[in-house]
Structures are given as C-alpha cells and as structure tokens.
C-alpha cells in the first residue's frame, strides 16, 4: 500500500523465468516401502510422507483432506514420490505437528466447488470489506478513526513505525494528520478504537508500506517483532496485525514471529497479509511461502491487484492485463489452487484512480470478479476451474481515498457482499 508508488512492470518472460517452481516428482523404486496411509482427517505439514493407491507422496505445505492422488503435481500440495510396494499401513501416530484450524473438511475433489470453511481466528463476517486508514495527510480526505464509514468491517491502520531495534515496531500519530483533523491525541485514538469495537468493527495495525523499513531476518528480530506488536495490541486495543512488507521479507523468521505473537495474543488474533501481485505468483516466493507456512493461523490475504502491469493467471497460458475482471479472477485463482482456502482470499484494489499508479477498476468490476469466483457468473473470458463460495471479500487502498471519491467504492461493494453464497 502506497503513499505514492511506481508501476511494477512484470513481463511474462521474467515471471516465468523467476517464478517457475520445479517440484520434486517422479517414480520411486518399486521396492520402496509404502508410508503410512493418507488420512482425510489428519493434518499434514511440509515434509510429511503418506501413501495412497500404492504411491508415496510428500506434503509441500499444510494440508487437510486433500487427496494425494488428486492433488499432486507441479503446482499442487502433494509431490508424487512414485510407486511403493508392500501395500499400505495405517498411521500409528497422528501426523500433524501443528494445531489444526477449525475448518469444515472438503467432501469433493478440488475440481468441483470447495466448501465454505470457518475462519481460523477473529470474529469477522463471512464476507467482509477491509480498508486502510491513513495515518498521514497526502491529499486524500483526512479522517479520525471513528469517522471511518460503517461500510468497512476491518480497518488496517497504516502504518507502524520501525525502531532502532531490528524487528521491533512502534506507533505514533502523525502530527500532520492531527493538524488536518483539528487535533488528535493518543487518548482520542485509543477511544476511537474502542468506539469501532462497539460498532462490531475490527482494527489491525499494518506493518510496512512502500516506505516501511521493518526487517525480521533473525531469531532476535522475530522475538522483537512479536513482543512489540503484542505491546501495541495491549496499549491501543488492536485486534491483530497486517503484514505489508513491500521491500522483501524472510518467511522463516516472519512465520516464527507471527506464531509467537499468536501464542501471546490468543486464538482471536487477526493476521492479514497484503502482498503485491507478483508476490503471489509462485508458491516458492517469500510471501506465498509465508502464507502457506502459517495457513493454520492466517485470517486473510488481500493481494494488491494493481500497480502490476500484465501477469500470468492460474491457467499459465496467457498474460492478463490489470484493470480487468479477467486479471482479478485469473490471478486470485493462483493461491486458491495452490493451498489457501477461499475464506483466506480477498481482492485488493485502489479506491480511485488517484489512489494508485495503475490497475483501478470500477467497483462494479470488483463485484463481477467476486461473483465469478463465488458463483461462476459475471465472468470475463477467463473461467476459474472451480467456484469458491467462501471467497472472503475485498480490500481497498484506502478508506481516505474512497471518502475523497464520495464513498463510491465501499457503497457499491459492501451491499453486494450480502448477495454472495
């Protein structure tokens, strides 16, 4: 999310060269022993080995009730290790090393409509609207937090500030904003968060942005991040954290930090991510890997489908131009087909042409994309391989730009969310 940002021009050639993942697959020796039989009720994580239909399979990321025989391949959750011998044996212990989220297991293969699942944390609506609140004055309408329109269910406060301690963050009200709104104190800001809570809204602190310098690249930094964000939660009443690190992240240490934060804050902690479009093209890229690594505690990913140029979709055979319904559906299909649940995916768009360098679409187009993903209606020429009725909703940069534009974005999309399955 940007105060100002340049357009990222990602060519198809560079994308393919830099993003293509080569997963391990192939035939194992016929004499290889079969691993414990796959169980649809068990949770498996990266590296777990199971067998099904006389083949061994290795999990690439967190998974539950995704049949290895159906979900194996270059871009899928299981790697086929080849034929195994000696039949299969039932597992003697429960494979998972992490606590499974509260989800409704799928009852159909992923080529059909995936089921709706219960979000792992937070108390947010089934479909909801997210907006970023600007803690600075850049020409968009300055707002006190309590003046955020009621159409927004989740408000991300942009942004936390880096400190001299690597990984640690703090929060300070911007003096320019305070002046623009006629005065704004820390006490008033805290009271506004409480007011939003009384309205049934959630508020998270966003870390990063275009100019953010927060880096979590070591065990010490991960600890500092978790401790400092937890301190902000206690001080201000934030409901969680949004990861918007646009200058790179280390998925291993950030995952560690977020798990530590979750342990401190509890199961209701909201964890969101706002990767740039190119960050969610390949399951091996840092942002995508982070999302998969924390899938069991992740609330939602709202990829920024703007400032992107043209990108490959999940069909991998065409480049789609930003600013179209095809772009939104074909790119949202990538994480949906590569490990994330529909309730963990939302569409991120600018609220107006002034809010981003490129990629703005009319809010009616956002509604069409949601319909296409959830119900297979109002699609463009691209047709997703399945329907995703649990698709979570939409996000915008920013609430301030939407208010500047007469609230056209939220006023169009918010009522439409109620029409989704």
From TrEMBL:
Residue span(s) of domain GH18: 127-420
Compositionally biased intervals (Pro residues): 92-118
Signal peptide stretch: 1-30
GO MF terms held by the record: carbohydrate binding; chitin binding; endochitinase activity
Enzyme Commission number(s) from the entry: 3.2.1.14
Gene Ontology biological-process entries: carbohydrate metabolic process
One GO term describing the cellular component: extracellular region
Protein name: chitinase
